[in-house]
Amino acid sequence: MAGGDRAVIERALEYVERTPPRELAKKSIVLSVPTGYGKSKSAPVFAEALYERGLSFNLVHVLPLRAIVEDLYTCTYLKSLEDLLGISIHCKKDPPRRTREAVRRLAEAYGDVRSAVAYQMGDYLLSEVGGKKSPLFDALQIVTTFDSYSYTFLRIPLTEIFGYRKHYAIPRARLLTSLTVLDEAHVALSEGEDLSSPLRSFLDTVLWYNAEASVPTLVASATLNAEMKKAISGATGNRAVFFELCAREENSNNRVCVRDEEYEGKALGIKWVTGVIADEAITKKVVEEAETGRETLVVLDSVRRAYEVYEELRSVLGDAVLVHGKLSRKDRRVALDKAPSAKVVVATSVIEAGVDLSKSTLVTDARSPLSVVQRTGRVCRDNEAGEGCRDGEARVYIVKSKRSDGDLLAKLEGCRTIHWRLPYDAGDAKGYSGLLEVSGVAVPDVHSLGVMRGAVSKMFIESDALNMLLKEENYSLIKHAVLTQVLVKPLERVLEEEGIPGIVENSLTVELDYLEGFADRVRRFVVVGASEHEVRPVFVREDTTNLLRPKNYAQAVIEGFNNLKAMKPVFVGFELAEGAYRDGIGLLRL
Questions:
Q1: Domains along the chain?
Q2: I need a surface site. Which of 102, 141, 214, 355 has the fewest CB within 10 A?
């Protein structure tokens, strides 16, 4: 029923369809519903409703992680059009009927079905199944990352980041005539290791500007606590309308509580068992679960610890899959293909979103309550009433370690009967919303907030000012970390044997400072360009001694882009020496 038939989503759609246009144009809609409720797949349905009312003409679906972009773009947007595009895409599930119909009607309204849906992020993907990359945001429905969206929103066209001139008017105009969907918004609001967050500053800027400029905006998340909702409301000037799953119907001010009896009934069919175990007991607990026929997902916040547990379990059980963010795209795809049927999957936080995986038991670190709730969405996911679980029972084991959030553990110690699918109390079980209140909220970076508001507020802004902004921020506008690509196999061999798909499959994206631990294994810096007739390196820097520093790295990228001429960039980053990367294991500091 997801994607437009859930009660909360239906109520929000009714609001969109019935509210007077002038009033609706000033509002931002917030969906606060559990994981798996269908909020992401409902985006095209909202876009169609607004299109029919003449309030938006495009859809820009913004997500925090590239993995989620790939999954949603492939298995929702492209999958909805596969017969019209003449392609075949394998996905675990088809899009909901209402979502599929909305995507198709919007595509047909666009006129050119092949250009109607696109993606935009730093990676290339899916050229073999009709994927279209759109750096100028010129498709009707675009799935993109916060990174790519932020440059265009802040008047820096993605095709001209490293060029002097910034022709921002047309791509930015496409954003302003779109429904902007800010999905998994809790990521931008979550308190991290840094005291302030440029990503939070960007989210505040978008919400403020879109409310002032009457740009339709939909915010969605399963894990918004009270302080996060307050932050969203404040950024929009108290013009956000929250639609939430609640124990009873209620409508007050800008909060609409909806009772979904059908969803609740199915959710209550799952019996949840929650416990706390020691870090050193992880392997023993997983083996116990496996011996009773239960499949287990282990999610740990440390890549090193995840690898250690994976090796321990593989030696005992022989059947385990490892998934983390330091795998090449090929190895990640292979791991995720094996994961549904594996007895045990050991992963890091990359599994929290964008991966359609369901196991009967979860063992998880407890660094963040928000992450724990997101991870429980991978338990008994296939069937809400419990038939998809072993014995109709879902088990969650929280790991007590030095990585744990003490306040969260204290709450869990006081209440072990938690329903991880319902935000409110039901019967003897406590809803998960109380756990969310343990989490802090990121503070906007004051400097970034001022710079971003200045960039979007002026009617015109000179290219010199935008170039200065980029240089001051090391070309990374919403993250403190600078990202780079890494090729794990020799470039010449990959080009000869596999071509461009080989570059995509045998590379990964990492933080620049992460590579410092592999400085002696970095072979060279390379920019690879492609034209209709050839694919070749256009810029090579053999001496990488100082290139792991952000300013030096940015300068090398600029030089590389200047050498592209009319060619399109295929790879910009570092080639590793052979042996630095371990197939199936990843680029790990062990």
A1: 7-71+136-264 (3.40.50.300), 269-421 (3.40.50.300), 481-576 (no CATH)
A2: 214
